[in-house]
Automatic annotation (TrEMBL):
Coiled coil segments of this chain: none
UniProt xrefs under PROSITE patterns: RCC1_3 (PS50012)
Protein name: RCC1-like domain-containing protein
RCC repeats: 34-85, 86-137, 138-191
InterPro entries: RCC1-like_dom, RCC1/BLIP-II, Reg_chr_condens, Ub_ligase/GEF_domain
PANTHER family: OS09G0560450 PROTEIN, REGULATOR OF CHROMOSOME CONDENSATION
A Pfam family of this chain: WD40_RLD
Keywords (A to Z) from UniProt: Repeat
Length: 282
């Protein structure tokens, strides 16, 4: 498990483009409900508009007009919707159980509520073929493709998990947010600790090797670094963003600089980041 201290993180994501906007209706200056407008590739009903047609401009998802939406997360070919009441809906491709509904449905054209989440959900995240949800108590649930251990359910877990499953090995840890890539996952705890697991190819987990991690194995080789404290003096007061496109993590923070050059985005590679940290501590 790769582990770092990350403070003041407000958002975490892994490598998927947005295809939605949240619109808030107001009447007389009074806040009303929020709803979703989506566009882009409509294959498998991933937009939740009741059809597979692609949309070239934002189109309101009428199936959820009666819900007050809090957040939306877009995966490879599926989308998760979170309401203010803590309910989760899913639409799109379900070939690996990533919708959290009956595996008999290979896809759905409109959002369906996920019934296997027992507690109020405050965050959701959609990966390429897997999904996650975090409860108000910091409990992590995951489901979908588990071919590389990206669900964190251990070696005995099935390769496809269609029902939201609690990640029991994190019972004593409160999860703050999660980001899902194609075959790996990253989480941040309420203590600012970053955890990574799943496919380790190209060093995307930050463990110092390319082996996959099926659970949360702590490495004695891991160097403890507090990124917030280590870089705040170098980049004080600036608002910066990391986006490593399916290789690392994307996050926003007021006192953090981690950049790489990928997809026309300027960033610092992990190797350069380590050099910066070593230079700072000298």
């Amino acid at each position: 498990m790769w582990k770092q201290k990350l403070k003041n993180v407000s958002k975490l994501g892994l490598g998927f483009s947005r295809r939605w906007i949240s619109i808030e209706k107001q009447v007389g200056g009074i806040r009303r409900k929020r709803f979703a407008a989506l566009w882009g590739n409509g294959d498998y009903g991933r937009l939740g508009l009741g059809k597979v047609d692609s949309q070239w401009s934002p189109t309101v998802c009428s199936a959820l007009e009666n819900q007050n939406l809090k957040a939306i997360s877009c995966g490879g070919a599926h989308t998760l919707f979170l309401t203010e009441a803590g309910r989760v809906y899913a639409t799109g491709l379900n070939d690996y159980g990533q919708l959290g509904i009956s595996p008999e449905k290979s896809y759905t054209l409109e959002p369906l509520e996920i019934s296997g989440l027992p507690e109020e959900i405050i965050r959701v995240s959609a990966g390429y073929h897997h999904s996650s949800a975090i409860t108000a108590n910091g409990v992590l649930y995951m489901w979908g493709n588990n071919s590389s251990g990206q669900l964190g359910l251990g070696k005995r877990a099935a390769k496809k998990v269609s029902k939201p499953s609690r990640v029991d090995c994190l019972n004593n840890v409160r999860i703050k947010m999660v980001a899902l890539g194609s075959e790996h996952s990253i989480a941040i705890t309420d203590e600012g600790e970053a955890l990574s697991w799943g496919a380790g190819g190209s060093g995307r987990l930050g463990h110092g090797h390319q082996s996959s991690i099926l659970g949360f194995l702590r490495s004695s080789r891991l160097e403890q670094v507090n990124l917030h404290q280590g870089l705040s003096k170098l980049y004080r007061g600036t608002r910066l963003k990391l986006s490593l496109r399916d290789s690392c993590i994307q996050l926003a923070s007021t006192k953090m600089a981690l950049y790489s050059y990928l997809a026309k985005e300027v960033c610092i590679s992990w190797a350069l980041e380590k050099q910066m940290m070593q230079h700072h501590h000298q």
